Design the sequence.
């Protein structure tokens, strides 16, 4: 309530409408998944990220370059979801969009760390280490699933970058905390969003375990189908929220 008092009337109205729409989408998504109405729920699931992108786009000028980068990442995620959730086909294309979104998140991390000689050394090490890790994981994935080399390579590349982004976001938070930087909050939220994203993708992998010849109990698969969206929706909301520096700082100021 204290935060809302600081917002202009148009901002209040926009955030309230988006929050209401997002809540409705989550409730409907979980309810339809719980009833195993998988065909009916797909159009509802698809609107999770567009609502988050709309939230990030509100007054985006205040978010600067980071806001533009995050909005780009969310738009790439929308494209990925459209192919995977609505078309239910062309999965390599969907993974390519998801991978591009992760590279956009990486661009945000690099943008924040860009200044200074010491940071240049970090950036060089980061890019080289990430490239080496991705190459190893992609190679391993194609060996494990030789019958689906392209899909395995893209999935491995995507998840390797997601995990790397989470690690680097945590390092960024630690660095800013040690330096007594006041606006650590947005990056903590960014890291939390990536953590939930990882949990979601682990559930997605388990849900598709049969493609690797692993049979899971029906009850477990049912629970996993719910957990996917329990993790996914908040992850996207937190990623969008992480660029709302003014909103987060107001909340922190009122709490302290």
Sequence:
């Amino acid at each position: 309530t204290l935060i809302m008092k600081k917002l202009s009337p148009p901002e209040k109205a926009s955030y309230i409408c988006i929050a209401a729409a997002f809540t409705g989408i989550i409730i409907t998504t979980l309810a339809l998944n719980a009833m195993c109405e998988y065909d009916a729920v797909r159009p509802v699931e698809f609107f999770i990220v567009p609502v988050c992108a709309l939230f990030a786009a509100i007054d985006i000028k205040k978010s600067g370059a980071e806001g533009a980068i995050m909005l780009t990442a969310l738009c790439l995620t929308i494209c990925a979801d459209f192919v995977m959730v609505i078309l239910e086909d062309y999965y390599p294309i969907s993974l390519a969009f998801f991978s591009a979104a992760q590279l956009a998140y990486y661009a945000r991390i690099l943008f924040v760390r860009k200044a200074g000689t010491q940071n240049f050394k970090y950036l060089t090490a980061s890019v080289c280490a990430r490239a080496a890790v991705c190459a190893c994981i992609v190679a391993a994935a194609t060996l494990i699933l030789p019958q689906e080399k392209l899909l395995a390579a893209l999935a491995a590349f995507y998840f390797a970058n997601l995990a790397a982004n989470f690690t680097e976001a945590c390092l960024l938070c630690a660095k800013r905390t040690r330096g007594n930087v006041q606006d650590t909050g947005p990056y903590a939220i960014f890291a939390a969003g990536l953590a939930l994203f990882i949990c979601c993708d682990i559930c997605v992998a388990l849900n598709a375990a049969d493609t690797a010849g692993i049979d899971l109990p029906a009850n477990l698969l049912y629970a996993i189908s719910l957990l996917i969206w329990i993790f996914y929706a908040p992850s996207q909301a937190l990623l969008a929220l992480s660029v709302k520096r003014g909103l987060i700082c107001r909340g922190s100021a009122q709490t302290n």
Remarks:
- The two ends are 15 Å apart (CA to CA).
